[in-house]
Amino acid sequence: MKYQIEPIGIIHSPYKEKFGIPRQPGLIKEARAQLVLSPPYNRPEAVVGLEGYSHIWIQFIFHQAIRSEWQPMVRPPRLGGNKRVGVFASRSPFRPNPIGLSVVKLEGVRCENGELILDLSGIDLLDGTPVIDIKPYVVYVDSIPDACSGFAPVAPAVKYTVDFSERARKQLLARQDSAQLEAFITHLLETDPRPAYSGEPDPGRVYGILLYDFDLRWEILADRIIVCELAEVESD
């Protein structure tokens, strides 16, 4: 039997490319996004009562990780990209069915210009991600304090302190919500968003991530990350 699944909405996120997205939800609480529900699922009565929950589960499609064939084993970044585990023992986006699951904070529900929008934070979703379902997070069944977490027992460790160059600081202060944006960038970089197999950073190399409408550029000096600039995105 075949089943047809239709997206109910689309995520609008600061993450414009897969590189740099946190590997789990909730790691960067300042990461904000909007879920815009699509017709006919954007009727206000469909979310009546949802505002009573602090967090929600989002089921979504890994729309940029779809492959023609699935593999039974994958290399999780948490294990350095060198050790294999079963695909069902991982949260890899490369799955038999490219479906993901994230628990995120619900900041609010609003209707604006004819659209029904859920404001979210702590997200780990690529901009444009199709959402296929929403469910409320229920603390007494969804939280299991004594659960075992296999090869990922604790959150990634902070590796670097993060400083802003004078140029980057001026660009940051010129933007709205600069304090929130500074915290977001700091938490994004301090655990090192580079793939685990990258090894030691190259001296003098400038790295980059597309966020919002700018290209975040930084370099790594010993135990510090220096944000060089929030550069304008070059048009094609």
Write the layout of secondary structure elements.
Elements lengths: L8 E4 L19 E6 L17 E7 L11 E2 L10 E2 L12 E14 L2 E7 L8 E7 L2 H4 L18 E4 L1 H8 L4 H13 L16 E5 L2 E8 L2 E9 L4
Parallel strand pairs: 9-12
Antiparallel strand pairs: 1-2, 1-8, 2-7, 3-6, 3-8, 4-5, 6-7, 10-11, 11-12
What can you tell me about this protein's structure?
This protein is mainly β. The protein contains three helices and twelve strands. The protein has helices at 139-142, 166-173, 178-190, and strands at residues 9-12, 32-37, 55-61, 73-74, 85-86, 99-112, 115-121, 130-136, 161-164, 207-211, 214-221, 224-232. The protein has a six-stranded antiparallel beta barrel with strand order 1-2-7-6-3-8. The protein has a four-stranded mixed sheet with strand order 9-12-11-10. The chain is globular and about 55 Å long. It starts with 8 loop residues before the first strand and ends with a strand. The model has no long low-confidence stretch (mean pLDDT 91).
Q: How many individual β-strands?
A: 12
Number of helices: 3
Shape: globular
Give start-end ranges of low-pLDDT stretches.
none
List its traits.
236 residues; mainly beta; six-stranded antiparallel beta barrel; four-stranded mixed sheet; 3 helices; 12 strands
Summarize the structure.
By secondary structure, the chain is mainly beta. Helix content is 11%, strand content 32%. The protein is globular, with a radius of gyration of 19 Å.
